[in-house]
Every structure is written in C-alpha cells, then in structure tokens.
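Limitations

Structures in this collection are predictions, not experimental determinations, and the ligand pose is part of the prediction. Treat each record accordingly. The example that follows, with adenosine monophosphate as the small molecule, is included so readers can see exactly what is and is not provided: the inputs are given verbatim, and the output is the predicted complex.
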Amino acid sequence: MISVDEAQAAVLGRVPTLAMETVALGASLSRVLRAPIVSDRDLPPFNRSAMDGFAVRAADAPGAGARLRVTGEIRAGAWPERAVGAREAMRIMTGAPVPEGADAVIQVERTKMAETARVGEPEVVLEAGVTAGQNIVPRGSEAKAGVVLVREGIRIGAAHLAVLASVGVIEPVVSQRPRVAVIVTGDEIVGPGTRPSAAQIRNANGPALLAAVHEAGGVASDFGIVSDDPAKTREAIARSLGGGYDAIVLSGGVSAGDFDFVEAALGELGVTLHVTAVRVKPGAPFVFGTRGATLVFGLPGNPVSAQVTFELFVRPALLKMQGASAFLRPGLEGILDGPLNNRSNRRNYLPVLVSRGEDGLHAQPIRTQGSGDTVAHSLANALAFLEPDRTSAAAGDRVPLYPLSSFLEV
Ligand code: AMP
Ligand code: MG
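Predicted complex:
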C-alpha cells in the first residue's frame, strides 16, 4: 500500500492537459482560463469622480467657505465640455470624467447653492476645505493598459467575469471540459427511483459522482448500473474506453470480494494499473490506471469511500487536466472540540463540522458509522485526518483539516 501523497503523485503525474477552446463570456463561469486576460485600456480610463459633487481646484478652497461660480454639469457617460478655471466649479456625478483644471471633487453633501444676484450664474459655497486628489480615482490607478488582470489557470468566478467584461473580453480562451464516464457496479444496487427489495440498496454513488464531476468542471456521462458479472463489467468498461472519454470513474467492485471484477476487467482491457491500494481510511481499495491518455479510477463502493477518494484523487486530476493552477484544496488546521480515534494503520479521514472560534477554526467531530454513513458525511464541511501513527486526538488538540466544497457555506 502506498500513502495518499504517493497515490496523488501517481495520478497527477499522468494527467494530460486538455485542448483549449473559446466560449461566450456568459458561459465561462467555472471554466479554467487558459490565456491571460490583458487590460485593453487604463482602468479607470479617465480621472473618475468617486462622488456626486463639484469638481473644483483645491487651491481655491484651502478651508471652508469658498464661494465658486458653477459653470456647467458633467454626467456619467459625458465628456466635460470645458475646463475648470480659477474660482470655478462644475457639478459632477459619480463615474463622470473629471474636467481639465479640476484636481478635486467635493461631495454635494458638503456644499450648498448660494443665493446669486444674477439668474444663470449660480454659485456654490463649499462647507469644507478641499485637498488635491480628493474623491478622484486617477486614470490607470486600478490597472494600466497592457497588464495581466487575470492569470491563466484561474477558475473563472463571478468576480472574474466583471474584470473580463470591463476589458471587453467576450470570448475568453478556456480549457475544454473533461468528459467523464461514470459506471456504478453492484448486484444489490437499484436506481433511486426504484423500490428496493429488502436486500437492495439505492444507488447513492451514481448521482453523487455525476455531481462531483460537474463540480470539478467536467461533463459526466451516466453509464448506469452494471451487475457483478465479469463479462458485463468488461463490456461496460470497454464501451467507456471506446467512447473517447478523458476519464472513467467506476464505483464498487474493487475490493477482494468474490464478486469484485473491476480490477481484473481493467487488466484484461489493457489498462495499466499504477495504484491498487492506498494507506487511507476510508478508501483503501482505490485503483488507478491509464490506457493511452484515458485515466481510469476504480473507487470503492461504500459511498463515503467513493466520495473521499473522488475528492483526493479524481477532483485534483480533473482540475489539473483543465490547466487549473489550484487543483488541490488548501491545507487547514483546526482545534478539535471532541475526541477522534484512528483504529487503522492508515491515514484516517473523519467528518467534522468546522466553525470559526475566537482562537481560530474549531472542528466538531460528527458521529459516524464509517464508510457507509452518507448522512454523517453530508453533515460535514471538512474532514479531519489522523496519520497512521496517530491513534487518537483529544478535544483541544490541533488537527489537519481537508475542507470540502461546503466549507465556505457556513
Ligand atoms: P463494493 O465496493 O462493491 O464491495 O461495495 C461496498 C459497499 O458499498 C457495499 O455495502 C455496497 O452495497 C455499497 N455500495 C456499492 N455501490 C453503491 C452505490 N452505488 N450506492 C450505495 N451503496 C453502494
Ligand atoms: Mg459491489
């Protein structure tokens, strides 16, 4: 058996990089950017007023009480028709270009219009002094034209869409999405919409793995449930191998039971196995192989084992395949609020609920019956893990945490 880190390296070292394509901006959410986004103009493109107020010359208003002639108005989207001269002001709106001559904007709330003798020549009284640069965002201060705003390898989020739109990128270059076949095995497994007989189990892994592929940016194809029969197992895997998929994810049939046929079928179909067992709990029977550029993952059937091994090995591979620079979850640490035990000689991942405390992250252990306990796993937003030589951890101890995708949703 190899360690989790060794198995991860064995997988990640064999991940090819997918081709690129362009997509419409609106369809680029969650896609991995493959060409840097470069600013086509200075941001902001002009000296921008950050307030509704008056564009003035700071030298005219060192203290409160300055009275200035108002010579015009600049709305957002309009270019100033004139400059601001000495003892002059122009009404200006948030987002409008600051006119020549002006070097500050005073908020409208700090001004009042003066009673003027002559109609058509309004004056404004400034109720506060003004300093140069006040309430102006200088041209290019956010970014200069030509600089990289979003690096390749970033997975595009809503905030990135704002940047792409700002610089006119309507068709970003992204990675193709990995195409992934999901095959579930097991005589006892029936679809979730089928009434199970007393000894049957509803298919938890199919829906979970299809969703996990989607979350990792892939396009999943549902190959359904295959019974524990060597020929049928071989046939389904052969069909998926011939389907041009980037990865094949199998659930079940990788243990040492009399009806576990996946590993043998993979060998017969020319899949080279690189990992056949991992020092991890849950998930020790995890299998990984390749045929050509196709990655083949055999996940144990226990639903928590399947989800944990997907997290540890499949998700990083799918992200790396897309050129994502962050394909591993960040390593965190937290303080345990209750004891945890590791009764295996493997790295043991245990469900916890992490929350923020005054002294940092706290991890509340979730009672679990083990690798079949989908409910306990669904309550977790992270997994705490104990190394093989750490048989227990007590309340108050610090433990490493592996955040799950629900981690940020607390
Ligand atoms: P296996 O890895 O095939 O030996 O399965 C291990 C355990 O996981 C057994 O108790 C199976 O009934 C259960 N199991 C396997 N596949 C699924 C599935 N798709 N959904 C729910 N439970 C499963
Ligand atoms: Mg089985």
